[in-house]
């Protein structure tokens, strides 16, 4: 892509606060963007070949949405964690194995999508994020859900298509968790904490495609309580 095309995109972005350049084969984050660091609210560089997010990302202090789906990122810089206004972060289809240590400083974050990466556990840094609504960790290599998950503030947690065989009972303590997706994992019925049914806020539990028949779930103690929440929520949305 020529400089003139990039320049035109930059001029538009200066007016709109949105910089979108998808599917152009970019191999690096456009450095010229930093000229607009105080203008930009949205950056979308999906479907490119970007391998590295430079430290200058920390300068975009007004950024609300950062979308980098389907790139080649293997790590994220600590500077990303300076984005105090960031509400939406989409990083689906990259090669990420972990999140920066300071990720919990992204205090405005509401939506986090990390589907199709190489995470092996639910990142503990997520527990510090107070405004988190939706977390998508589907299609990773997660094998267990640790105790720190009990502090997660999310309303929806998607763990579909991982390799989960163990879940901490703490998950039933999540204060706002209503939707828990665990489809296509490696769960035995005995490894599903019964407190999810009997003693949690969860009103939609999706567990198809594990190592037990769904009808066996109905025999568990607490299933009636779960169904009460499920039905009440359904009525609310009907």
From TrEMBL:
Keyword NADP: no
Keywords: Leucine-rich repeat, Repeat
GO cellular component: cytoplasm
Database matches in InterPro entries: Leu-rich_rpt, Leu-rich_rpt_typical-subtyp, LRR_dom_sf, LRR_domain-containing
Highest taxon of the lineage: Eukaryota
Classification via SMART domains: LRR_BAC, LRR_TYP
Pfam families per UniProt: LRR_1, LRR_8
Protein name, as recorded: Leucine-rich repeat-containing protein 57
Native species: Grallaria varia (variegated antpitta)
């Amino acid at each position: 892509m020529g400089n003139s095309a990039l320049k035109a995109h930059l001029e538009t972005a200066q007016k709109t606060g949105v910089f979108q350049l998808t599917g152009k084969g970019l191999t690096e984050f456009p450095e010229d963007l930093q000229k607009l660091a105080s203008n930009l609210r949205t950056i979308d560089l999906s479907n490119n070949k970007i391998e590295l997010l430079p430290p200058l990302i920390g300068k975009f202090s007004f950024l609300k949405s950062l979308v980098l789906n389907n790139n080649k990122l293997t790590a994220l810089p600590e500077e990303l964690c300076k984005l105090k206004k960031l509400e939406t972060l989409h990083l689906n289809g990259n090669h990420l194995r972990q999140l920066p240590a300071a990720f919990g400083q992204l205090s405005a974050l509401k939506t986090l999508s990390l589907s199709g990466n190489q995470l092996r556990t639910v990142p503990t840094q997520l527990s510090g994020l107070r405004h988190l609504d939706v977390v998508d960790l589907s299609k990773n290599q997660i094998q267990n859900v640790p105790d720190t998950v009990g502090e997660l503030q999310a309303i929806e947690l998607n763990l579909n298509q991982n390799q989960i065989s163990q879940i901490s009972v703490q998950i039933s303590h999540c204060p706002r968790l209503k939707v828990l997706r665990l489809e296509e994992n490696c769960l035995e019925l005995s490894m599903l904490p019964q407190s999810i049914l009997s003693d949690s806020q969860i009103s939609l539990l999706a567990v198809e495609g594990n190592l037990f028949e769904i009808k066996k779930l109905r025999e568990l103690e607490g299933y009636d309580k779960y169904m009460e929440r499920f039905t009440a929520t359904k009525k609310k949305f009907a």
